[in-house]
Amino acid sequence: LATETKLTLALHLFAPLAFLPLRRPALALLAIPGFFFTLLTTNYPHTLSIHFQYTSYWVPWLFAGVVLALRSYRQGELSVLRYRAALGAMVLGVFFQSFVFGALLQHHTFVGGFGRVPFQITPQERERAATMNRLVAQIPRTASVAATDHEAAHTSTRIDSYTLLVANGDADYLLVRRQDLGGEERANAQQALNHHPYGLVDSGNDLFLFKKNYKSPGTAQAMRILNLHPAHEGADEP
């Protein structure tokens, strides 16, 4: 627990709320879910970053604690003064935290996941999205598909959809983007090619769609572009 990264996360969570969820020992119990799933993790930095989804373990419980803490401040001597001071401190804290790190008050610094979110779509991105839709439309709904991690979201409504970051699933189709093909994704894609022949179905805008037991004249060139090395020459088109 005694690391700078974990202290930074705790300050991101509690400081904007004026530490209200910790001002009553009983309310501190509401922090257990977030504490268990984030601050107790090791060797996985994403759970200790406000830029990933793991803060969701904290948010509902922390704001519930804020409500209960403010309610307790309405009771007893100097209740109005204490309540207003606590509420004002929290409002200011949340405002500045949201302005610097959030996405509602400004769109220049917000980071989601691994990179900054630009909040605008370029013509090139629109063209790539159209290409993605065209490729995905060529995958039968009942077919299994493995895709590079960012592209896997576009095929995730299927029953058998895999991210190459984890496994290839012996999938019927491979959907890859050259820019995203690296590390574990490349290794899992190569493993699929070692076991079965895959042929190029369609491509465009750095996106490539391959089908198992399929043969096409553009396959060899696509494999060279992606720096993949198929163990099979491919199969004739059914």
> Considering DSSP H and I runs of 4 or more, what fraction of the residues is helical?
40-55%
- Low confidence ranges: none
Give the N-to-C terminal Cα separation: 58 Å
**Count of helical segments?**
9
Q: Which series of helices and strands comes N to C?
A: HHHHHEEHEHEEHEEH
| Order of adjacent strands in the largest pleated sheet | 4-3-5-7-6
Task: Outline the biggest β-sheet.
Answer: 5 strands, mixed
The strand count comes to: 7
Tell me, briefly, the overall form.
elongated
Can you describe this structure?
The chain is of the alpha/beta class. Helix content is 42%, strand content 12%. The chain has a five-stranded mixed beta sheet with strand order 4-3-5-7-6, sandwiched between helices. A hairpin with a 2-residue loop joins strand 1 (111-112) and strand 2. The chain is elongated, with a radius of gyration of 25 Å. The model has no long low-confidence stretch (mean pLDDT 92).
Short description:
With 238 residues, the chain is an alpha/beta fold. It is 42% helix and 12% strand.
Question: How would you summarize the topology of this molecule?
Answer:
Layout lengths: L3 H11 L10 H4 L3 H8 L19 H15 L5 H23 L9 E2 L2 E2 L6 H15 L7 E3 L1 H4 L8 E3 L9 E5 L6 H12 L2 E7 L2 E6 L6 H8 L12
